[in-house]
Amino acid sequence: MTEINTSHAADTIAFPKGEAAALGMSRTHLVMMVGLVALVAMAPFAFYPLFVVKVLCFALFALSLNLMLGNLGLLSFGHAAYFGLSSYSAAHAAKVMGFTPELAILFGVVVALVVGAVIGALSVRRKGIYFAMVTLAFAQMVYFFSLQARFTGGEDGIQQVPRGQLFGLISLQNDMTLYALVATLFVLGVLALYRITYSPFGHILRSIRDNEGRAISLGYRVNLYKWLAFVLGAGFAGLAGGMKAISFQLASLTDVYWGMSGEVVLMALIGGMNTFFGPIVGAALVVWMQNELASFGAWVTIVQGLVFMVCILAFRKGILGTLGQFLTRKL
Amino acid sequence: MSIFNIPIQLFSTQIMLGLINGAFYAILSLGLAIIFGLLNIVNFAHGAFYMLGAFGALLLLDHLGINYWAALVIVPLLIGLLGCVIERSVLRWIYDLDHLYGMILTFGMSLVMVGIFRNMYGATGLAYSMPPSLQGGFNLGFMYLPASRAFVIVASGLVCLLTWLAIEKTRVGSWLRAATEKPQLTEAFGINVPLLITLTYGFGVALAAFAGVLAAPIFSVNPMMGSDLIIVVFAVVVIGGMGSISGAILSGFMLGLVEGVTKVFWPQASSTVIFVIMAIVLLVRPAGLFGKQD
Questions:
Q1: To probe the interface with A, which of B28, B98, B242 has the most A CB atoms within 10 Å?
Q2: Mutation for B interface: A308, A311, A315, A316, most B CBs within 10 A
Q3: What pLDDT does residue A5 have?
Q4: Do A133 and B96 touch (CB under 8 A)?
Q5: For chain B, what is the radius of gyration of the CA atoms?
Q6: In a mutagenesis test of the A interface, which of B29, B96, B100, B119 is the best target, namely the one with the most A β-carbons within 10 Å?
Q7: In sequence order, what DSSP letters do the residues of chain B get, joined into one string?
Q8: d(CA B16, CA B138)
Q9: Is beta strand B2-3 parallel, antiparallel or unpaired with respect to B6-7?
Q10: Per-residue pLDDT tens digits for B167-190
Q11: Which residue of A has its CA nearest to B93?
Q12: A8 pLDDT exceeds 60?
């Protein structure tokens, strides 16, 4: 009962057997990856660019959560801590320290990696449901820290963060230029996460999920692998947070609050946490839903809560998981 | 009189506030532990039921004129009943799944409950007027002890003690312990385990609602009051380990005290000290102070 995948092995995120592979991807995944890149390239002409920027930031955030959730079956329930800390750090670096945007985002990623390394080392000492509680509790600690620390601006957050000039040369003031940067980082992030997921390292993560005792007896240092996955997940969450802070010129308490941690779980869940691309679909859906319901106040929370319940009770495979089952293909 | 140059009034007041927080941690982690033992669900909605308890007391007073003392009985019963209904209609379907699903499902439940109350009452706090019999207090010589706060500590201590006695010393309690260890075997002995599960969830939720009624006169009643509290209670549960009832009660009160003492010496750290203790416990005794390794 400790692993999240109690059904048969075909549901897992694992690489499909026997399908022709190219560039290290199955044919289905190759088609999806090309489709995704094409979609990202065309989206700003069809939608409001900043809306798509938001979707991309959250999609990367949800993918970073799913690195652990999908492959290890461990829920980092306080994932907003790394997203939010990086958001604050990048905003502070760009506004107060005068960093160029790429260095500000990098600074955010480094902060997220360091904090993730410390919290991860402590959290992987517990398994299953305790792991979720521990990570949530540490995230709350980060939240209290952000509430009290001076540089975060307390309730106001860090506002009017300059987008600055990329490499000191290209101004990001234009939304389309900004979009190009975010889209590039997003695609690079997705490719890196894909590579990690289907590398030998990723296979070992899934073997730990499916049978931890066996992985230990085969000589794998299980906690080291969990920790590495945790740190990587925190780093990519940091990348998403830094991109978000620069793009929307704002870092606030919302970014580190448990509500944000819950939202990103919802994204992975709706899209399908046992698929690689699912969290991207989930993120697009949740961000769209928030936009549609923005004027209805607390109704957003109620609808999100109901979607959570419906997903758990009747739709656990998520959109891509269900679609994949229908098409008898691993999406 | 002073301790480490800190006036004893300040010191004992913070100890008292710490004990009050500890009382809430204890009741809530007790309920979480009982529910987790039998249902294998980490009840994220526990904080929301605590909030419902406080609002229940407020609404009964405002609309029906039912006072605090009656609310202490009626509200936990009503919310407990609601818990039973939720267990039968919603939770029942996920017992065979991984623990994570239960936590996420109850998380969703709490979002719905909190959202509904935020829609109706906004995010600001409402005041519950102190019942006349709890106004005033006792002068203990070294400090002034308000009756309302003394009552919270005594009442919650008593409820924890009674719950512990009921589980450890009564027949129904022995069924509960048996069903927690080996549900199928217990059922084979003719005990109605599904009913026991329903009642256990109802009881755990009623405990949270009782804590909510206790909280109504001393804290402000607002829709978010349970959400932040429940995360601290998770840390308490990780520190104590969910395996033991007395462990949950003890670590609840203990950590409340630690928080109070921290507030005297280093006020800024008081909101994070429990998480720091959790980190130390994870390093030294990963299974928790009273727990078995998972």
A1: B98
A2: A308
A3: 46
A4: no
A5: 19
A6: B100
A7: -EETTEEHHHHHHHHHHHHHHHHHHHHHHHHHHHHHHHH----TTHHHHHHHHHHHHHHIIIII---HHHHHHHHHHHHHHHHHHHHHHTGGGGTTS-HHHHHHHHHHHHHHHHHHHHHHH-SS-B--PPPGGGSSEEE-SSSEEEHHHHHHHHHHHHHHHHHHHHHHHSHHHHHHHHHHH-HHHHHHTT--HHHHHHHHHHHHHHHHHHHHHHHTTTS-B-TTHHHHHHHHHHHHHHHH-TT-HHHHHHHHHHHHHHHHHHHHH-GGGGGTHHHHHHHHHHHH-TT-SSPPP-
A8: 13
A9: antiparallel
A10: 889 988 888 888 888 888 988 888
A11: A313
A12: no
In a domain, A96, yes or no: yes
- Quote the pLDDT of residue A297: 76
**How far apart, in whole angstroms, are the C-alpha atoms of residue A131 and residue B286?**
11
Range of the domain at A44: 21-327
Residues 6+ apart with CB under 8 A from A268: A62, A65, A66, A69, A70, A278, A279, A282, A318
Q: Choose among A6, A125, A302: nearest Cβ to B112.
A: A302
Please compute the mean of the pLDDT values over residues A236-260 and round it to a whole number.
Answer: 93
Q: Is residue A119, in this structure, part of any structural domain at all? A: yes
CA–CA distance, A140 with A304 (Å, rounded to integer) = 21
Q: Given a cut of 60, is residue A20 above it in pLDDT?
A: no
Number of structural domains in chain A: 1
Give residue A326's pLDDT.
Answer: 86
Is A126 in CB contact (< 8 Å) with chain B? yes
Query: Chains A and B: how many Cβ contacts under 8 Å?
Result: 134
Tokens linked to B120: 């109706």
- Residue B2 CA from chain centroid, whole number: 33
Q: Residue A121 is encoded by which pair of tokens?
A: 């080392």
Inside any domain, residue A14 = no
Nearest to B84 by CA among B228, B4, B250, B195: B195
Q: Do B234 and A122 touch (CB under 8 A)?
A: no
Within an 8 Å CB–CB cutoff, is residue A122 touching chain B? yes
CA pair distance A64, A60, nearest whole angstrom: 6
- Three-state SS string over A53-79 comes to HHHHHHHHHHHHHHHHHHHHCCCCCCC
- Report the C-alpha dihedral over residues B104, B105, B111, B114, rounded to 10 degrees: -120
Residue A108's nearest CA partner among A253, A233, A241, A231 is: A241
Q: What is the mean pLDDT of chain A?
A: 89
Residue B286 has its nearest CB partner, among A4, A126, A316, at: A126
Going by pLDDT thresholds of 50, 70 and 90, the confidence category of residue B240 is confident
- Select the more confidently predicted residue: B33 or B291: B33
d(C-alpha A268, C-alpha A273), whole Å: 5
Confidence at A61, pLDDT banded by 50, 70, 90: very high
